Amino acid sequence: MKLLEIKDLSVQFSVHGKILQAVRGISFDILAGETVGIVGESGSGKSAAVQAITKLSQAEKIGGSALFEGVDLLKEKELKHIRGRKIGMIFQDPMSSLNPTMRIGAQIMEGLLFHKLHPKEEAKRKALEWLKIVGVPDPIARFSQYPHELSGGMRQRVLIAIALACSPKLLIADEPTTALDVTIQAQILDMLKNLQKRFQMSLLLITHDMGVVSEICKKVIVMYAGKIVEMGSVDEILKSPKHPYTQMLLRSRPNLESTKEIPLTSIDGSPPNLLDPPKGCAFKERCPFAANICDKDPPFIKSTACWRVS
Amino acid sequence: MIRVEHLSKNYPLTKAVDNVSFTIQKGETLGLVGESGCGKTTLGRMLLRLILPSSGRIFFEGEEITFAKSKKLCRDLQMIFQDPYASLNPRMTAGSIVEEPLKIHKINRNIDELLALVGLPPSAKGRYPHEFSGGQRQRIGIARALALNPKFIVCDEPISALDISIQAQILNLLVRLQKELGLSLLFISHDLSAVKYISERIAVMYQGQFVEVGPSNTLCKTPLHPYTNLLLSSVPTLNKKPQSLPLAIERAARRNPGPSGPGQASYLSICSKELAARYRSGESPSSQEGVLQSERTSLSGCPFYNRCLRKTDLCKQKRPDLKEIEPNHFTACHFPLKLSVKRELESYFLPPPELEEK
Question: Which residue from A241, A244, A216, A230 is spatially nearest to A301, judged by alpha carbons?
């Protein structure tokens, strides 16, 4: 069953009077209970796309449609009965996403009370339960503490508790572990994976790290310069990536077995300027296989946007 | 090349660097890993005397330089910074940024040549930092560090602010430059894969101390300290199979934290059967969550005590010293993970991974 269906989404920002095309027509689905990862470099439009569908975007113009359980999120006037209730969100920086003037417990209860899911006493009990589920030791003491009294990993756990408190059907996690140390990152990823299974929710994970995706996602979407260049199951893409960008991205990452005798595959140059996006394939400038035909938009065939595949 | 003896830096509340000793040979790269706040940047800056140590001594080419002040030293010791957006003066052109050290030291050198060395065109000279991408800015930073022909460079997280596709470019550049110019590097990063790639030896730092130092291959294949093992097992990998048996066990331990988790028991067993028995008798394993800063000064024992799954009373009372367990492979742990013991005990608890696969 399709939970979220995004069609031809485009997002444009206005920068000094010029139009920046952050997202240039992307379409994908998320099924109920599915874990999907969006991978891309900074500026590839992955966050812009997600912020647009939850109406948290400052964009000038948003086009396309985003159907969530049959409701077009982009056309709705008010999202407050969906956002937080049916779609939970976790943001990148746990240091700045919590309200520093509110106690932890109150922040978890806020959503429950706002959506009138539980009376106050019940909400408090729920909030304590959630603190326990996300692995915060001594929930009763933490309940009345302020965010600054908690470490980064603990704050991220609290954010996850807030996002999950209303039992959303879709959890969007925008770089949830980028600001954390690698040992804490592993804990948080393990926990997200377990919670996703336990509550049967869909998970949309945004990250720049293929490693993170391969740890918890089934499906992956690779974005480059505002477009989807490849998508498919994680196993398949890791084993045989089709798009040259994905291929090079996977090979450019040192792993624990590579040594400096063999140089890493590097992608020369840098991503295109989206104030003036190139015609045709956006990767052609950096692509070793670029040909004349790449000046035309590549078709999206076999889940890959590349002329070589078609 | 560089020798450091018992170096410490105390701040009012914490010991940022606590009694660290090491050497770096000519042309060698020492990787320094650890999580944020473990003191790796403080250590790097102390070597360049940007921060003065509280105690200990630093030697460069046999001479003590702990408190020395000379222009000659500035020429030999240079630094590449983490954030290419913040470490370049936005009001200076790339050319004048690279030229500045040459002017100060009154040296004549062709700037085009320097820019070419790091892969930038001569036309870059007249442009300002904001006109460059992150990777190119980092190249300018590297050109500036190379301007005076240094012998030793501290690279403080040189790639962590860059995009993945750019990180490989900069890593390759650093490796190439090091070979061509015979540089010694101290490569500081929290990214274990990058450190492993570029370094001959790795030092793992935890709360201001070195907990393990060894050749990078050996250290990654057979870590001795439980913290190194935890770090290695935490690196997200593309292939889902963990690289080695100890890693498989650490992962299992992390994923089955419940009292009946088979991973936990076998993990504990690596150290001793006695510990495994204690664990099975119901003594709860410790939390792996990080320790708050304030807790760290009060510890007189092992700094990893609060997070270690295998802690004993000895670990609480006595701080382990850095000892050479295998040739050139040092660790500060009372119960280092030894491969022979591991193999023997693993057979009790876990089937070999090959069997598990089928």
Answer: A230
Do B338 and B326 contact (CB within 8 A), yes or no? no
Q: What string of DSSP letters covers A257-298?
A: T--TTSPPP---S-PPPTTSPPSS-TTTTT-TT--GGGGSPP
Cβ contact B254:B275 at 8 Å: no
If you average pLDDT over residues A1-17, what whole number do you get? 91
CB contact under 8 A, B196 and A258: yes
How close A290 gets to chain B, by Cα (Å)?
18
Task: Supply the mean pLDDT for chain B.
Answer: 78
Chain A positions touching B163 (Cβ under 8 A) are 41-42, 208, 271
pLDDT of residue B347: 45
Q: Which long-range contacts (CB under 8 A, 24 or more apart) does B212-217 make?
A: B212/B329, B212/B330, B212/B331, B212/B332, B212/B333, B213/B22, B213/B322, B213/B329, B213/B330, B213/B331, B214/B326, B214/B328, B214/B329, B214/B330, B214/B331, B215/B328, B215/B329, B216/B31, B217/A259
Q: How far apart are CA A287 and CA A294, in angstroms?
A: 10
Cross-chain residue pair B234–A263, CB shorter than 8 Å: no
Secondary structure of residue B297 in the 3-state scheme: helix
Of B220, B234, B237, the CB nearest to A185: B234
Q: Classify strands B209-215 and B323-326 as parallel, antiparallel or unpaired.
A: unpaired
In order of A231, A304, B144, B294, the CA distances from A301 in angstroms are: 11, 5, 47, 56
pLDDT for B69: 79
Rounded Cα gap, residues B24 and B35, in angstroms: 22
**pTM of the prediction?**
0.81
Which residue out of A132, A145, A182 would a mutagenesis test of the B interface target, given it has the greatest number of B Cβ atoms within 10 Å?
A182
pLDDT at B262: 43
- Which chain A residues are closer than 8 Å to B197 by Cβ? 254, 258-260, 264
pLDDT of residue B161 exceeding 70: yes
Nearest-CA neighbor of B268 among B287, B249, B243, B290? B249
Please, are residues B139 and B120 in contact by the beta-carbon 8 Å criterion? yes
Encoding tokens for residue A254? 């040192």
Q: Residue B291's pLDDT band (boundaries 50, 70, 90)? A: very low
Token representation of residue B8 = 């410490």
From the list A182, A187, A266, the residue facing B168 with the nearest CB is A266
ipTM of the complex, rounded to two decimals? 0.79
CA of A33, closest CA in chain B: separation in Å? 21
Closest CA to B270 of B338, B318, B224, B208: B338
Indicate if the pLDDT at residue B263 is higher than 90.
no
Confidence of residue B248 (pLDDT cuts 50, 70, 90): low
What is residue A178's DSSP assignment? T
Q: Decide the pairing of beta strands A71-72 and B152-156.
A: unpaired
> Which of A153, A211, A264 is facing B236, going by the closest CB pair?
A211
Find out whether A41 and B163 touch, Cβ atoms under 8 Å: yes
Token pair recorded at residue A8: 């031809």
Residue A29's closest CA among A65, A76, A82?
A65
Helices (H), chain B: 40-47, 71-76, 94-104, 111-117, 134-146, 164-181, 192-198, 216-221, 226-234, 245-255, 262-271, 273-280, 293-297, 313-317, 339-349, 353-357
Under an 8 A CB cutoff, do A154 and B289 touch? yes
Q: How far is B235 from chain A (nearest CA, A)?
A: 6
